[in-house]
Amino acid sequence: MLKLMMALMLAVVSMALVACASSDKSTAGGAAGAGVSMDAIKGDWPLTHIRGEAINLPADARGPYITFDPEGRVSGMGGVNRFMGAFDKSKLSDGKLTFGPLAMTMMAGPEPLMQMESQFGAAADQVRRVRLEGNELFLTDDAGAELLRFKRYR
Questions:
Q1: For the chain, how are helix, strand and coil distributed in percent, rounded to 5?
Q2: Per-residue pLDDT tens digits for 115-151
Q3: If we measure between CA atoms, which residue out of 11, 17, 29, 12 comes closest to residue 129?
Q4: What digits encode the pLDDT tens for the residues 85-123?
Q5: Which numeric CATH code is attached to 2-151?
Q6: Hey, where are the domains in the chain?
């Protein structure tokens, strides 16, 4: 139980201490400056991959998702707990994305979902760039490595 609580606390701290974006280097999947619009990413995005690996959910579990609001707010669920906060929408057109401090509920849940939530939080901590390919949203580090992938099913 102590390990579970430590993992949860690590996820919360990781999501709360997201650093600012750094340089204007090119990224895999597009050159610097290739960005997205707020209209293109607003709304709900179910999570499909963490660090390039497809997530595996129990049949009765609601999957993690992220919601971008046109006012610069972000919210969602990491697997067990809900999170909310802000993101810097001013640089989306340059393909950059940074989150401000994120608050998160502190509920415990099934171990597989808690582990996935911890991985989700650690990956979110490293997000610096965003790109959209069809109905898939990729959140990457500054070098373009895929951290989180979401897919809109409409």
A1: 25, 30, 45
A2: 999 999 999 999 999 999 999 999 999 999 999 999 9
A3: 29
A4: 999 999 999 999 999 999 999 999 999 999 999 999 999
A5: 2.40.128.270
A6: 2-151
